[in-house]
Amino acid sequence: MPSRSREFVLTLSCPDRPGIVFEVSRFLVEHDANILASQQYDDLETGRFFMRVQFEAPDGPTPLDPTLLQSLRNAFQPIAESTDMSWQLHDAGERYRLLLMVSRFGHCLNDLLFRQSVGALNTDIVGIVSNHQDFEPVAKNYGIPFHHIPVTADTKQEAEQALLQLVERCNVHLVVLARYMQVLSDDACRALAGRAINIHHSFLPSFKGAKPYHQAHARGVKLIGATAHYVTADLDEGPIIEQEVARVDHSLSAEELAAAGRDVECQALARAVKWHCEQRVLLNGQRTIVFR
């Protein structure tokens, strides 16, 4: 009978020097692995090397041998230490556990729920959190637990503690702010560093505050967009993962402009979530390397 195999994804970054690709290739050969896809980037400005390798390797004596992943990690550790490497090795079949956060605009939430339901995202949505109760029926329809965590100026700290406890209790891999209209504290941002993605319109800083699309309409903009980025303590300034744009003109009303904006927000956020969950996004200081 043909031997079983499993797919894995190795991502890494390190100071650039000769022999890195050779070391990775030798490691894979030594473990009878077959490369399925390989991408690399040498940042000449910072002198850092980035790489993503997707490969298949023989499974263990039992299907989905739980020790195989750790065995591969242990074997790769000496290579990483010798090259001052930041790296991650994941089972490509492992489904990311997502926690979606939303306030009162549901377009991004509904888009992600639909994509997950049809298999477009390799994820499990383990919960929906909101500071309002508007989308509790939506969560019920999808069979997803809904968590109402109201937030006021007096209860913000307790609300964030409840959120972080939920993240830990549900073993959440990624928190998605799908138009969640509350600013996370510095402490919450640090606790979720590298595992929280936000989406917002790309008018900042020109049109801040309420109804940005109406403000843009009043100024006659010709281009609208959306930005998906990692959440940091610097409000709306985290490393950018993806952006989307659409051309508009004078014929669109403010409401039509907002509708076009909702579309580009959904597209940018969905791609950012998908790429993160496929280990395609590597941090490079305040920027990202995205191996599409």
Please tell me about this protein's structure:
The protein has helices at residues 20-30, 66-82, 107-117, 136-142, 156-169, 186-191, 212-218, 254-277, and strands at residues 5-15, 34-43, 48-58, 86-91, 96-102, 123-130, 146-148, 174-177, 196-201, 223-230, 240-247, 281-284, 287-290. With 292 residues, it is of the alpha/beta class. It has two domains: 5-91, ACT domain (Alpha-Beta Plaits, 2-Layer Sandwich); 96-290, Rossmann fold. The strands form three sheets. Strands 7-6-5-8-9-10-11 form a seven-stranded mixed beta sheet. A four-stranded antiparallel beta sheet has the order 2-3-1-4, covered by helices on one side. Helix 3 (107-117) packs across helix 8 (254-277) and helix 7 packs across helix 8. The protein is globular. It starts with a strand and ends with a strand.
Q: What is the helix fraction of residues, given as a range? A: 25-40%
Q: Approximately how much beta-strand content do the residues carry? A: 25-35%
Largest sheet, spatial ordering of strands: 7-6-5-8-9-10-11
Number of domains: 2
Order of helices and strands: EHEEHEEHEHEHEHEHEEHEE
Shape: globular
Q: Report how far the terminal alpha carbons are from each other.
A: 35 Å
Main beta sheet: 7 strands, mixed
- Would you identify the CATH H-level superfamily of the largest domain? Formyl transferase, N-terminal domain
Unreliable stretches: none
Number of separate strands: 13
Gross CATH architecture of the largest domain: 3-Layer(aba) Sandwich
Integer average pLDDT? 94
Highest CATH level, the class of the largest domain: Alpha Beta
Total of helices: 8
- The chain-level structural class is alpha/beta
Whole-angstrom Rg: 21 Å
Could you please say which CATH topology of the largest domain applies here? Rossmann fold
